[in-house]
Write a structure and sequence with these properties.
The protein folds into four domains: about 1-130, Response regulator (Rossmann fold), CATH 3.40.50.2300; about 160-250, Beta-Lactamase; about 255-325, Helix Hairpins (Orthogonal Bundle); about 330-480, Heat Shock Protein 90. Helices cover about 45% and strands about 20% of the residues. It has helices spanning about 15-25, 35-45, 65-75, 90-95, 110-160, 180-185, 200, 205-215, 250-285, 295-325, 335-345, 350-355, 375-390, 445-455, and strands spanning about 5-10, 30-35, 50-55, 55-60, 60, 80, 100-105, 165-170, 175-180, 220-225, 230-240, 245-250, 330-335, 355-360, 370, 395-405, 405-415, 460-465, 470-480. The strands form five sheets. The chain has a five-stranded parallel sheet with strand order 2-1-3-6-7, with helices on both faces. A five-stranded antiparallel sheet has the order 9-8-12-11-10, sandwiched between helices. The chain has a five-stranded mixed sheet with strand order 14-16-17-19-18. Helix 9 (about 250-285) runs antiparallel to helix 10 (about 295-325). Bound molecules: adenosine-5'-triphosphate (ATP) and magnesium ion.
Length: about 475
């Protein structure tokens, strides 16, 4: 037993008080006496007693209410009440108040000491348990904190060292983190950018364009170009509860490869054109050398068909090369409705043969375009040509041209085979043909690449909406002339 335990007595002066004082001191306890309420409060605060014995009436106040106040501040302090008379009501109040026990006369010294020791033992058990629980919770918290700190450091090292540029921002586009790669990419100094607005801290037109477009739709990629020829593919990803991240990969070498490939294709197509013209010329001259038998006539016809096909392909490739190189600078006032008429005329035969239901709807308030009429015609030819080509007999093709603000919207829709969803993003690539088109209608996969290049060079946008087996709609947005 801890003999140094301090027992505080809050009893009015009486023989009982003396008795208790003596009994407890004799049992080895340190005993202190509070003479009034102030003394009691001071002692509980400063001396920190191990147990309190309080009279049912103390310094003119109710012992129960004083106990309640003391327990409010020291919930584990054992309190024993001394009452002049024993009763069941008293016992009930003791339990209700949360006291450890009570005495009432006749008092025997041994009983007093016994009760005090029992209460102390109970309090000690509670204290031990509390301490154990606190220690356990604390150590598990410390463990968790250590763990998350270690994780955070690990993550920081990983993000810091990856080759791709990583920018993390909050919802207001303030920087939360930039890694070393980003500093290298944008040539930033070592200053701390945390909390600064991204737009002004890393001033780059392409990056700002990405941020601007990220908020108005599901755009995910954007190229960031630098004057020294470097090109990065930047990707914007929203992060719930944090903001967003921009990651950037160096694609300069891919761009260079693409340029070399385009140069090669352009050179080859160019060099193929003269021999093709020569072959076509000779097939026409053959007739002049004498009559051909029907077999020879048929072969000659097929030969010419193939040469035509190759010539178209070569011309398409040359067109693409020119468009991609930015050589298409011819701009004049173009009235779309006129170009449309010419374009639809050339498909008249095919439309009749396939019994296609063609519906054309051109708005009256259409503004003019500032464009290259030859390219616009080429664009329409490809879109309408595809709609007819990939729509079965007796299907429908709708061509709709309207104004939306100062943009012209061209919508070419069909009830054809559609394009598988996972391939819709690829049909604008050179030579790409959707898996459901291969083996069906012939094509080289260049038409839509040309359409895309034309639309791009006119500062427009083109995309496809399609449901497999139901039909496709190609939509072009072009800025109208002011
Ligand atoms: P060409 O170079 O002769 O135009 P192509 O028609 O195959 O050949 P694109 O016009 O570039 O090439 O079209 C690419 C692919 O997109 C097509 O092969 C086809 O799979 C798909 N496609 C294009 N338009 C439609 C459409 N209206 N309906 C269904 N699929 C289409
Ligand atoms: Mg086509």
């Amino acid at each position: 037993m801890a003999k140094q335990d301090l027992i505080l007595l809050a009893l009015n002066p009486s023989p009982i008080l003396d008795l208790m004082e003596r009994a407890l001191s004799a049992a080895g306890f340190v005993v202190a006496v509070a003479h009034d309420r102030t003394g009691l409060d001071r002692s509980t605060h400063e001396a920190i007693p191990a147990l309190l014995i309080i009279g049912e009436k103390f310094s003119g106040q109710d012992g129960f209410s004083i106990s309640l106040e003391v327990l409010e501040r020291f919930p584990t302090l054992p309190i024993i009440l001394y009452a002049e008379r024993d009763s069941t009501a008293l016992a009930r109040s003791v339990v209700k108040t949360g006291l450890s026990g009570y005495f009432s006369p006749p008092l025997v010294m041994a009983d007093v000491v016994d009760e005090v020791q029992r209460s102390l033992a109970r309090a000690r058990k509670l204290g031990d348990w509390l301490r154990r629980e606190v220690r356990r919770t604390t150590s598990s918290l410390v463990e968790k904190a250590d763990f998350s700190e270690a994780e955070r450091q690990k993550l920081e090292i990983i993000i810091g060292n990856i080759q791709d540029g990583v920018i993390v921002m909050d919802r207001n586009r303030n920087i939360l983190l930039v890694n070393r790669a980003v500093r290298d990419i944008f040539n930033l100094d070592g200053s701390d950018l945390t909390g600064k607005p991204l737009g002004t801290s890393i001033p780059n037109e392409d990056l700002n364009a990405l941020l601007m477009r990220a908020s108005d739709g599901p755009l995910k990629y954007h190229e960031i170009n630098f004057d020294d020829g470097r090109v990065y593919n930047a990707q914007y990803t929203p992060i719930p509860q944090i903001g967003a991240a921009v990651t950037m990969q160096d694609i300069s070498y891919l761009k260079e490869l693409d340029r070399l490939k385009s140069d090669f294709i352009h050179t080859v197509s160019h060099d193929l054109r003269s021999p093709l013209t020569a072959i076509l010329g000779y097939t026409e001259l053959i007739h002049r050398t004498g009559p051909l038998n029907p077999n020879q006539e048929e072969f000659m016809r097929r030969l010419q068909g193939s040469i035509q096909h190759m010539t178209t392909l070569v011309n398409d490739l040359l067109d693409l090369g020119r468009l991609d190189a930015g050589f298409d600078t011819r701009r004049e006032v173009v009235h779309l409705e006129n170009v449309m008429k010419y374009s639809l005329d050339i498909f008249e035969n095919q439309i009749r043969q396939k019994k296609i239901n063609l519906v054309v709807d051109v708005a009256h308030n259409l503004k003019a375009l500032r464009a290259n009429p030859i390219r616009i015609r080429q664009m329409l030819d490809n879109l309408v040509g595809n709609a007819i080509k990939y729509t079965p007999v007796e299907g429908s093709v709708y061509v709709n041209v309207s104004m939306q603000g100062d943009q012209i919207i061209i919508r070419v829709e069909d009830t054809g085979m559609g394009i598988p969803p996972e391939e819709q993003g690829r049909v604008f690539e050179k030579f790409y043909r959707a898996s459901n088109a291969i083996g069906g209608a012939e094509g080289s996969g260049l038409g839509l690449a040309i359409v895309k290049s034309i639309v791009d060079s006119h500062q427009g946008r083109v995309w496809v909406e399609s449901i497999i087996g139901k039909g496709s709609a190609f939509i072009v947005l072009l800025p109208a002339q002011d």
